[in-house]
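Hi all, posting the design record for the shared folder.

TITLE: backbone redesign
STEP: 1 of 1
STRUCTURE INPUT:
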């Protein structure tokens, strides 16, 4: 019996050590211990249960694209070397990669479609609860698209812009996408035309990937990957870009704002509502509804003296963070933990990055999971369809469900970590230019002189395969220490908010050149540019900088990084950065190692074609060193001091 007790104690000690090892965020091990005590399974428990993961899948050499299979290729050369149709490892890996890219491009571009649809509703009058907040931004978009704006009513300008936007998804013909034509640099457009990867219509490029990867169509890895780059460009320079631009017009272009981040933003004295997903159409309205006096009074009458506390999770959290200053509770891997606190009345979701397991976790507490999109239902959740024609009314209905659930909270099961961090966020391209005095010249001069050695764009996702937030933080610290300005989006941005790297005081961690500039402008050394769909902000900024310097984007001392990526959206994002001339680091290994030919295409040959490539490095310190080496190589080619 004593042996059993000793074993149990050792097992608990090893679990505690494991919980402390999975994240750099101190809230995580605390809540994982609570989850174990409460008998709740989380993403980390399920990750362990999946070990060992399928070797064929990790290498990308399994194919399920037709019903002759599934087929797999033996990576060691002893078993089958071709699928039943004759496809070899190179074809199978390329097809699988392309299907992931198509899903990622479709996700961000479909997000854009929803935004554009409501913008059309503003123009036509049916989206009565939405409006045009940033008229100046709308006019600048119209001018970029070549539209005449002088003497026109703002609604007429809006109508002409939205008509172009609607056609981006499915226009006929071979003409390039209008938004790409408006915002991409001339040198890049010439290269894409030469390589025959200029995108024609968003839906067409995604559809063509699905066609090409059907059995009996495209079997050439280079030809397949070329179409992947075309679809990625359609997403980055049109789909994602429209989502960002129209959101700015409707809800306001972000400006620097002080906020709070991490699970400590939940409150014991208030109804806690977590908005999770990616689309600001819902989350902005939930924030408004939570301020309704009738609902606030109802919350107080039920014992929530602090009223209603809305907090964000993941990228819809970023949307309301950068525009309204609404606190953010965490990034992707923390969504279950918000429920495990026992203090969350409702998790209200739209789409993307939402774990179906939320419903299972919520069943162990009083929390209600409320789905709102017809394209994103979860069995066991409450579904309240978000009616965009009556957005305010629907939002109030949803918030009322959360408020009325407060009476079911069990105080003895509540544990809210104390950790929260102040941050300064909201650095849109316009905000950065404003900080620089309205011109790119100060940034260009800082780069040429070497005060700023280069620019790194780091994008989100967190992944249980890596230590949560660790690679994001480690790479960022190493880069800013070496005078590299870091900008980024998504879950990376939330990690930085929690780690204190978005405080102006974090400039003390930067090298002397970057520190001087940050202290003069009173900005942090790493800048929050928005949600993951807002990676297009980085494209616009880099394109403008390249034009200002008279170089191609591939000449810039700029590198992209996705240290903890998991999502198919990240495949599309990385691909449109590479196609735009920016080399991209991946911190988790993509499922392509089953084909040496595909690996060479991505990590070597791509540079010969588009001036950039992917490289994989799972060690964040080695990754940071390689990024610094690439920046130094670019500076030498430009003749700038290193």
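Okay, here is what came back for every position:
SEQUENCE:
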């Amino acid at each position: 019996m004593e042996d059993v007790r000793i074993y149990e104690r050792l097992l608990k000690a090893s679990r505690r050590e494991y919980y402390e090892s999975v994240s750099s965020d101190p809230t995580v091990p605390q809540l994982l211990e609570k989850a174990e005590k409460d008998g709740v399974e989380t993403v980390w428990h399920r990750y362990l249960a999946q070990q060992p993961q399928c070797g064929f899948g990790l290498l990308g050499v399994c194919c399920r694209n037709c019903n002759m299979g599934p087929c797999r290729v033996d990576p060691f050369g002893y078993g089958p070397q071709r699928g039943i149709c004759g496809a070899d490892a190179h074809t199978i890996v390329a097809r699988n990669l392309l299907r992931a890219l198509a899903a990622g491009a479709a996700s961000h571009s479909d997000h854009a479609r929803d935004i554009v649809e409501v913008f059309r509703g503003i123009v036509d009058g049916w989206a009565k609860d939405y409006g045009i907040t940033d008229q100046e931004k709308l006019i600048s978009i119209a001018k970029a698209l070549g539209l005449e704006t002088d003497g026109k009513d703002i609604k007429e300008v809006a109508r002409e812009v939205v008509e172009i936007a609607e056609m981006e998804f499915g226009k006929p013909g071979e003409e390039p996408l209008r938004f790409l034509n408006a915002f991409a640099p001339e040198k890049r457009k010439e290269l894409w035309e030469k390589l025959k990867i200029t995108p024609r219509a968003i839906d067409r490029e995604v559809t063509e990937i699905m066609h090409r990867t059907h059995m009996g169509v495209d079997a050439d890895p280079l030809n397949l990957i070329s179409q992947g780059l075309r679809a990625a460009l359609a997403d980055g320079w049109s789909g994602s870009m429209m989502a960002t631009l129209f959101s700015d017009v409707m809800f306001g272009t972000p400006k620097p704002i002080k906020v709070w981040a991490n699970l400590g933003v939940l409150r014991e004295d208030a109804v806690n509502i977590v908005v999770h997903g990616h689309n600001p159409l819902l989350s902005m309205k939930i924030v408004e509804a939570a301020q309704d006096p009738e609902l606030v009074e109802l919350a107080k009458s039920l014992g929530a003296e602090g009223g209603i506390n809305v907090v964000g999770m993941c990228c819809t959290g970023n949307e309301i963070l950068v525009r309204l200053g609404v606190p953010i509770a965490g990034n992707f891997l923390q969504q279950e933990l918000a429920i495990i606190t026992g203090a969350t009345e409702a998790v209200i979701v739209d789409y993307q990055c939402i774990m179906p397991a939320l419903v299972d976790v919520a069943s162990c507490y009083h929390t209600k999971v409320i789905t709102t999109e017809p394209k994103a239902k979860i069995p066991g959740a409450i579904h309240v369809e978000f009616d965009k024609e009556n957005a305010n009314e629907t939002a109030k209905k949803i918030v009322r469900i959360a408020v009325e659930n407060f009476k079911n909270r069990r105080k003895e099961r509540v544990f809210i970590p104390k950790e929260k961090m102040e941050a300064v966020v909201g650095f849109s391209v316009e905000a950065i230019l404003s900080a620089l005095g309205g011109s790119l010249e100060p940034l260009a001069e800082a780069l040429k002189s070497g005060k700023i050695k280069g620019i790194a764009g780091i994008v989100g996702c967190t992944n249980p395969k890596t230590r949560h937030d660790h690679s994001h933080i480690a790479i960022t610290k190493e880069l800013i220490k070496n005078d590299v300005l870091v900008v980024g989006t998504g879950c990376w941005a939330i990690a930085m908010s929690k780690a204190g790297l978005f405080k102006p005081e974090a400039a003390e961690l930067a090298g002397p050149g970057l520190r001087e500039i940050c202290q003069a402008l009173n900005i942090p050394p790493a800048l929050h540019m928005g949600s993951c769909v807002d990676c297009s902000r980085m494209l616009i900024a880099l394109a403008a900088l390249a034009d200002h310097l008279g170089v191609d984007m591939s000449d810039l001392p700029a590198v992209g990084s996705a240290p903890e990526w998991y999502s198919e959206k990240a495949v599309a994002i990385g691909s449109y950065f590479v196609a735009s001339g920016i080399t991209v680091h991946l911190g988790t290994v993509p499922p392509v190692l089953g084909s040496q030919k595909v690996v060479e295409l991505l990590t070597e040959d791509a540079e010969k074609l588009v001036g950039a490539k992917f490289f994989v490095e799972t060690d964040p310190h080695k990754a940071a060193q390689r990024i610094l080496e690439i920046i130094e190589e670019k500076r030498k080619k430009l003749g700038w001091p290193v």
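COMMENT: The first strand starts at residue 62 and ends at 63.
Let me know if anyone wants the other runs.
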